[in-house]
Specification:
With 210 residues, the protein is α+β, with helices and mostly antiparallel strands. It has one domain: Pnp Oxidase, Chain A. The chain is 18% helix and 34% strand. The chain starts with 9 loop residues before the first helix and ends with a helix. The protein binds flavin mononucleotide. The site of flavin mononucleotide has 17 residues, from strand 2, strand 4 and helix 2.
Length: 210
């Protein structure tokens, strides 16, 4: 099967892209509005794109009525946000925070999650999240009126003590169980990992790994 994206409806491109580019990590983003109101919402058009500067990107759509989601508005207004990683323990609470509650409702209260103060930015981080990245907005790109890429720099990281080895900076896989977004309402656990050694050309010439 072949697909010419120029001749596909956007909703069909969406199905093909999110169906096959999987799993995607979930950024559970906390922000604070100019009115001081805290906000939390998940985004799976998300990834890391570099370490110097430490670059993370979110892809955020407008609401169907053409207005900005609270997350976008707050990031553009304040320049600060926190990306909280989602593990199995808080996956359902994350899903509650995607409900389009009317303004005045606190998603975090509805989900039974709590904020603790961040160290480098004003928005709080989710206390129940295993890892939080405090970010400053660097740049936004709007290709079309309804879609923005929000590019940020991570300025501070907080990790629960059990998920990281402080000597090596490596994660402890037995303690860190992030959830990945698949498509529709489907998610993935990391139930199995495997190792592949990357060779130099000299090593490969001597003893190529099949
Ligand atoms: C797992 C998951 C991933 C999502 N990913 C995105 C995304 O990448 N971009 C987006 O615009 N909305 C995404 N959404 C929808 C937003 O979370 C939803 O519109 C939310 O209500 C926005 O809240 P806000 O107005 O408080 O920012 C996702 C929802 C879920 C449950």
């Amino acid at each position: 099967m072949e697909f010419d994206f120029a001749n596909l409806a956007a909703k069909d491109r969406y199905k093909l892209l999110v169906g096959f580019i999987i799993p995607r990590p979930i950024a559970f983003v906390t922000t604070v509005g100019l009115d001081g109101m805290a906000n939390a919402a998940p985004f799976s058009f998300f990834n890391v794109f570099g370490e110097d500067p430490a670059t993370v990107v979110l892809g955020i759509q407008m609401r169907p009525d053409g207005t900005m989601k609270d997350t976008t508005r707050n990031i553009l207004d304040t320049g600060e946000y926190v990306i909280n990683m989602v593990d199995e323990a808080i996956a359902e609470q994350m899903n509650v925070c995607a409900v389009d509650f009317p303004s005045g409702h606190s998603e975090l209260d509805e989900a039974g999650l709590t904020l603790e103060p961040s160290r480098a930015v004003k928005p709080g981080r989710i206390a129940q999240s295993p890892v939080s990245f405090e970010c400053r907005h660097m740049h936004s790109i709007t290709f079309r009126p309804d879609r923005s890429l929000i590019i940020g720099e991570v300025v501070w990281m907080r990790a629960r003590d059990d998920v990281i080895d402080p000597q090596t900076f490596r994660l402890r896989p037995e303690a860190y169980h992030p959830v990945g977004r698949l498509y529709g309402n489907m998610y993935a656990r990391q139930s199995e990992r495997f190792e592949m050694v990357r060779q130099t050309f000299a090593e490969w010439k001597k003893a190529p790994v099949a």
